[in-house]
Amino acid sequence: MTTADSNHIETPHRERRGPIPIAASAGFTLVEMLVVLAIIGLIVGIVAPRVFNQLAGAKVRTAHIQIESLKNALDLFFLDVGRYPTTSEGLGALMARPSSASSWNGPYLKSAAVPRDPWNNPYVYRAPGQNGRSYDIVSFGADGRDNGTQSGTEITSW
């Protein structure tokens, strides 16, 4: 061995100091991804039914508010014309003058048309109403049928 060789000591592995390269620390393992997906699934499973129940309740409240608005418009119609619209004239009499109404001062609703219920069905109007009432306004709810079984069944004006 020469003196040049004896002065040079090779180190097989050099210690590296400083930050770890980004490529070595980036990304998620499959197990981490599956755990996150399982947690999100549990949260959705707990929260979703509550959100849907709130949505159904909001539609029922909206129908009640719309029926109250229609009742107010019908009262204005009564003050001007002296009677409520007939069943055949329906709620459309609030938007367009019936041929038999001489002192009609409508339209009595702010919207461009008679609103539909929150389930996109037309409100049912009957005059005279049941049990001695002047009129009835009814929404058949989500199923759109009389005496239905789904949530929000038969929201009425009385």
Q: Mind summarizing the main beta sheet?
A: 3 strands, antiparallel
Summed up, the helix count is 3
Distance between the termini: 111 Å
CATH top level assignment:
Alpha Beta
Widest beta sheet: strand line-up = 1-2-3
Note poorly predicted spans: none
CATH topology: Glycoprotein, Type 4 Pilin
| Averaged pLDDT | 81
CATH architectural group: 2-Layer Sandwich
| Number of separate strands | 3
Structural class: mainly alpha
Percent strand: 5-15%
CATH superfamily: Glycoprotein, Type 4 Pilin
Please indicate the count of domains.
Answer: 1
Description:
The chain has 158 residues and is mainly alpha-helical. The protein has a single domain (38-156), classed as Glycoprotein, Type 4 Pilin (2-Layer Sandwich), CATH 3.30.700.10. The protein is 39% helix and 6% strand. It contains three helices and three strands; from the N terminus they run αααβββ. The protein has helices at 3-7, 22-25, 30-81, and strands spanning 124-126, 136-139, 155-156. Strands 1-2-3 form a three-stranded antiparallel β-sheet, with helices on one face. The longest helix has 52 residues, at 30-81. It is elongated. The N and C termini lie far apart (111 Å). 15% of the residues are buried. The model has no long low-confidence stretch (mean pLDDT 81).
